[in-house]
Specification:
Chain lengths: 347, 812
């Protein structure tokens, strides 16, 4: 009796093994599971004989029955894994990772804005605070307070668009120096980004362009501080290997005044690329980037500061120039056409 | 300013290269912009000797010449000049040479005779206007030598950009001073050798000088020459003037130009025969009450005069616009023999005003308005008189007629070396400063070692303050050699509270816009009045540019739209049909209350046009419409924690139709944030837009103000579940969604948490009925402290279902 019981159980295993391959769906498999392992299944039926066995045979028969139950379970489980894998395969068969994504429209900032933001970030990082002011200005703020009295030849340096005799479109962001000092006591450390206007339009000039003005006034500010600030500034902007050159120059509102050249970003200061002369720096290896100087005592007098008590520096640079150098834009007019094929390059 | 190196070397023994000089000057603040070869265009011309000169067999005026040009066989050249002759030395352009006018010399045949080059006239070489015949060269030259070398023409000219403060450098002398300073070389002035002829008379007796106002003219000197013969200047002077861009005229005028370029002193010569009464008077113009006064200047133009114009008068009438241009009635002509040579100083501002008003800038006025060396002018007059006598054969009357009501007074400044070093960030030694200042021509009194007294030289009008001397010390030492240090930026506590800047807000707005898929445009702040008229915008309040560059840039924009609309036109012309643009910029309006007369308001403009999405799978295709631009505005307001906003129809807008006002309720009532609308098709058509152009124009300043007042505040998350009920309402098509929403809210269902429109469906119109649409709203009910039971929600929701048809013409 024990023998036939054991053979019957082995038969179950063999039968299940043979038939599980025919189960082609989870439903088939479930039916198979019920047939073999269900409450009224084949294993349960075989187990019915266990009750009539003698006590000497029961342990062996019970042990065998458990083995077969586990064997059947794992046979069905492995088939389930096969079916799951096949189902996943089916589900993925239509998946094409190369289809275009549902892309939201891409926006972009104007390259002038990008350059301006970068410049402002570097300068605010150095401790300057951003101020803003009017674009329509008084002659006094734009010229007189900046040591440019009426009929002074220095006014020739900036061709002006006038609204009336005494009102004009600011020709530089420098009136913000005046407005800031009028409204604050030293120390003052500000930058003023914004639009400026000149009566000038050709290949290298547009009647509107963007400038950033910087001003630091405190006790004992020296030209060495100016050099340090601008050196740090251009190196953060154009790279750590950028060299800076100070050339004496003239601005009515600074004394001494200097123009600052940086080593050419295109040719690295060599003046040529391979055997070709560099067009960006015209073979000089230097590119003029900004003007600066120590604030003229007459400006302090105009705003009510004591020129014996404070010193300071001011600088100003053209944002378009920086954008052209940084992004390799050759034609100034591109900036204001707003052709989307141009704009989208700065996404 | 063009500076000839040859000329410069007469003042300073500089032997280095032109490039080294240019570099040094640039680093001293005199920026050399270019190094030019003024005679480059004739650098291929050689000296030739005419070996044979025979008549052309087939012409009565041509000659067939055999010309020795040094190398190889003599060239056969056909020449038509009447003065060509055997034995002459002549300038020859060989085959291949390019003439100044761009013509290339080619091998040719003239009436059957081969010609291998051209014998040139002075005009063909650009050396003078003379075209009467070929140029005949001095016999001492050697055939084959380059003409430019044979004549000793200048090959190196510096183009120097002179800043307005450095009037002293507007001359060879000035640049020579800087070169001497830069290279430690001595400066030497030309030797004076002026021979006066007492028998010709005395200048002071020949002209009597009167100066009305010493401030306008501190000094006037005159030399008088007699028996001059007017003719071309000698070649060396003409060539030198040509090299620095001055056109030679005649020996008298050329000398005044020569001294102007050499010493920086503007001079003027009058024909004494045309001056009346032996008087020269310096006085302002005296226009009568009708404003009727004029002078005809050298160039033949009649110039209207104002009382602010300074004139030179003779006994009867004005004879020159002082410092600007001479008068036609007294100028040197070919017939002149008697010359009054004027050497004066005029008030810079006066000269500038006149020159600018009359748009008559000249080399003379350029220097006068920047300042001329009053002391140095004495030497300039003497040298000019000498050169005139030498080139014209005139005799110089004894003495100088002088009126100097305001003699030059030395200006003295203090100089504190400690302050100098503190400002520059240097440790300059007293020795260096003394040598530098002395080298500049200053007189230094350092008896007080802490506070020197320094008198600056009369040619340096810009050195009038202590700080100007600091600059000189820094400049000569080299600004580029100042050690760089990073300053410690100290701040007041006040400034710590102002981190929230206008600039920062506008940048954040730009960041939002780019993130929302818009591309930033930047347009000029000015547009044409036409651009505003096209949008039917009012005339009043516009700010006009008094001196615009062009009519399409003559008015500041009063709205953001014109620039963006121009971008539509440009992009459509380039085939860019899908536009999502934004711009943040100021709109300008007149405002009498503002100190600049202008109200400046930052605007955010958004423009969408054409396909809503990229034309690619899987996007559904469709044209951008109201909901696109409104959605952007709503998204922005959410971004700024503002809203919900009201969107109110605004009929009668100048260029938008429909136009919707965007309003926000605030403490001070309803604020108008801006407008959304579609550009009227007729107007859009002017910008070549065939599809709808949707625009939003928002007040960025107001957005900043409102959003600054809002702080994020946390609200506890709900602990109990919501109950949701949908209701579909059949409405007349012209009933606005917000009206339904408002009616539901007015019914005040208890525990209503939110109300959202979830679906819109427009059934097909039936012919006999009014058009309708179905709006499905989802109402979410929730209690903060407990779970709602169905029964109480049913009761509240029932109030809505029953109440709505009584309030509105709708069915549920
Ligand atoms: Zn380069």
């Amino acid at each position: 009796m024990l023998k036939s019981f054991l053979e019957g159980l082995d038969g179950l295993t063999l039968e299940c093994e043979a038939r599980r391959g025919q189960a082609c769906s989870l439903k088939d498999l479930e039916a198979l599971r019920v047939e073999f392992l269900g409450r009224k299944g084949k294993l349960a039926a075989a187990m019915g004989a266990l009750a009539q066995m003698g006590p000497e045979d029961k342990p062996a028969a019970g042990k065998k029955a458990n083995e077969v139950k586990n064997a059947l379970g794992s046979l069905l489980e492995s088939r389930q894994a096969e079916l799951d894998a096949a189902a996943t395969q089916d589900a993925l068969s239509g998946f094409d990772p190369s289809m275009p994504g549902r892309r939201p429209a891409a926006g972009s900032l104007h390259p002038i804005t990008l350059a301006m933001q970068e410049i402002c970030e570097v300068l605010t990082g150095l401790g300057f605070e951003v101020v803003s002011g009017p674009e329509v200005e008084n002659d006094w703020h734009n010229f007189e307070a900046l040591n440019m009295p009426p009929d002074h030849p220095a006014r020739d340096m900036q061709d002006t668009l006038y609204v009336s005799d005494r009102v004009l479109l600011r020709t530089h962001t420098s009136p913000l120096q005046v407005r800031t000092m009028l409204s604050r006591k030293p120390p003052v450390a500000v930058i003023a980004p914004g639009k400026v206007y000149r009566r000038d339009s050709d290949l290298t000039h547009t009647p509107m362009f963007h400038q950033i003005e910087g001003l630091l006034v405190d006790r004992n500010v020296s030209m060495g501080d100016l050099r340090g600030t601008l050196t740090a500034f251009v190196r953060q902007l154009f790279g750590a290997n950028t060299n800076v050159r100070f050339r004496p120059s003239f601005f009515p509102f600074t004394e001494p005044s200097a123009e600052v050249d940086i080593s050419c970003v295109m040719c690295g200061g060599a003046g040529h690329i391979g055997n070709e002369p560099c067009r960006v720096c015209k073979k000089t290896g230097w590119v003029e980037i900004l003007g600066c100087g120590m604030v003229d005592p007459n400006v302090y007098r105009a705003v009510g500061y004591d020129p014996e008590a404070v010193t300071g520096f001011a600088f100003g640079l053209g944002v378009e120039r920086v954008a052209m150098l940084k992004y390799g834009i050759g034609d100034l007019r591109m900036f204001f056409e707003n052709d989307v094929r141009f704009l989208e390059q700065f996404s | 300013m063009l500076i000839s190196l040859q000329w410069l070397r007469e003042f300073v023994p500089y032997t280095g290269t032109v490039q080294a000089l240019a570099d040094r000057l640039t680093m001293q603040g005199l920026e050399v912009e270019a190094i030019l070869d003024p005679f480059e265009s004739i650098s291929a011309i050689v000296v030739g000797r005419v070996l044979e000169c025979d008549a052309h067999p087939d012409s009565d005026h041509l000659h067939v010449c055999s010309v020795d040009v040094g190398a190889g066989e003599a060239l056969q050249i056909v020449c038509g000049a009447p003065n060509v002759a055997k034995g002459q030395l002549v300038p020859v352009a060989r085959i291949g040479a390019v003439m100044p006018d761009g013509m290339q010399i080619k091998k040719g045949k003239l009436r059957g005779v081969a010609s291998h080059g051209m014998i040139c006239s002075e005009r063909e070489l650009g050396l003078s206007e003379d075209h009467s015949g070929i140029m005949v060269l001095p016999d001492s030259l050697t055939p084959g030598v380059l003409l430019v070398d044979a004549l000793g023409l200048e090959r190196e000219v510096l183009e120097v950009s002179i800043t307005p403060n450095r009037a002293d450098c507007l001359s060879v002398l000035g640049i020579a001073r800087e070169a001497a300073l830069g290279f430690g070389l001595p400066l030497s002035m030309p030797k004076l050798n002026l021979i006066e002829d007492v028998s010709a008379g005395h200048a002071a007796e020949a002209v009597r000088l009167e100066i009305a106002d010493p401030e306008l003219c501190p000094v006037y000197r005159a030399r008088v020459l007699t028996g001059a013969s007017i003719k071309p200047s000698p070649a060396w002077m003409r060539h030198r003037l040509l090299a620095v861009g001055q056109r030679p005229i005649n020996n008298i005028v050329d000398v005044t130009n020569y001294i102007l370029m050499e010493l920086g002193q503007p001079l003027h010569s009058f024909d004494r025969g045309l001056l009346k009464g032996g008087v020269i008077r310096v006085a302002p113009a005296t226009p009568d009450m009708k404003g009727g006064m004029a002078i005809t200047t050298l160039d033949g133009q009649e110039r209207k005069l104002l009382a602010s114009d300074l004139l030179i008068w003779d006994a009867e009438r004005p004879v020159a616009l002082a410092g600007v241009m001479g008068g036609a009635n007294s100028s040197i002509s070919d017939a002149s023999t008697e010359v009054v040579l004027e050497c004066a100083i005029f008030r810079p501002g006066t000269i500038r005003k006149t020159a600018r008003r009359l748009a008559l800038p000249s080399e003379a006025s350029y220097r006068f308005e920047r300042g001329v060396d009053q002391v140095g002018s004495v030497f300039a007059l003497e040298r000019a008189a000498q050169l005139m006598a030498e080139t014209s054969g005139a005799r110089v009357m004894a003495g100088v007629a002088v009126a100097e009501p305001k003699p030059w007074v030395d200006r003295e400044q203090i100089f504190r070396i400690a302050k100098c070093n503190a400002l520059l960030g240097l440790e300059l030694s007293p020795e260096f400063c003394r040598v530098t200042l002395t080298g500049l021509g200053c007189h230094v009194d350092d008896s007080d070692p802490v506070c020197w007294r320094v008198a600056s030289p009369p040619h340096r009008l810009d050195l009038e303050r202590e700080v100007d001397l600091f600059e000189e010390c820094g400049r000569v030492h080299g600004l580029d050699r100042i050690p760089a240090v990073l300053p410690k930026i100290s701040k007041s506590l006040d400034s710590a509270q102002t981190s929230d800047t206008v600039f920062g807000f506008l940048q954040a707005l730009k960041g939002w816009a780019a993130g929302a898929g818009l591309r930033e445009a930047i347009n000029y702040s000015f547009v044409g009045a036409d651009d505003l008229d096209r949008l039917n915008l009012p005339e009043e309040g516009r700010i006009r540019i008094a001196n615009p560059l062009s009519e399409d840039q003559n008015t500041l924009r009063t709205e953001i739209a014109p620039g963006l609309l121009n971008n539509v036109r440009h992009n459509l012309s380039q085939g860019n049909g899908s536009l999502r643009l934004f711009e943040i910029a100021k709109a300008f309006r007149e405002d009498a209350a503002s100190d600049t007369g202008a109200c400046e308001n930052s605007r955010l403009g958004i423009l969408v046009h054409g396909p809503r999405h990229a034309q690619e799978w899987p996007w559904e295709q469709g044209e951008a419409d109201y909901l696109d631009v409104k959605g952007l505005v709503e998204n922005l307001l959410t971004h700024l924690r503002l809203g919900p906003a009201g969107f109110v129809l605004d009929p009668g807008h100048p260029y938008l139709e429909p136009c919707v006002r965007v309003e926000l309720a605030g403490k001070n009532g309803v604020a108008l944030i801006g407008r959304i609308g579609r550009v009227q098709p007729k107007i859009a058509d002017a910008y070549h837009a065939r599809k709808d152009v949707w625009l939003a124009d928002l007040d960025a300043d107001l957005l900043r103000e409102l959003s600054r007042a809002v702080k994020p505040a946390f609200v506890s998350l709900p602990k109990f579940p919501p109950v949701r009920r949908d209701v579909t309402i059949i409405c007349p098509a012209d009933l606005r969604a917000e009206q339904v929403e408002a009616a539901i809210r007015e019914l005040k269902p208890k525990n209503l948490e939110s109300l959202v429109l979830v679906a819109v469906y427009a059934p097909e119109d039936k012919a006999d009925a009014k058009p309708e649409r179905n709006l499905t709203f989802r109402l979410t009910y929730r209690h903060a402290d407990r779970t709602l039971v169905d029964k109480e929600v049913d009761k509240e929701h029932g109030k809505v279902l029953a109440g709505l048809p009584q309030k509105l013409p709708v069915r549920i």
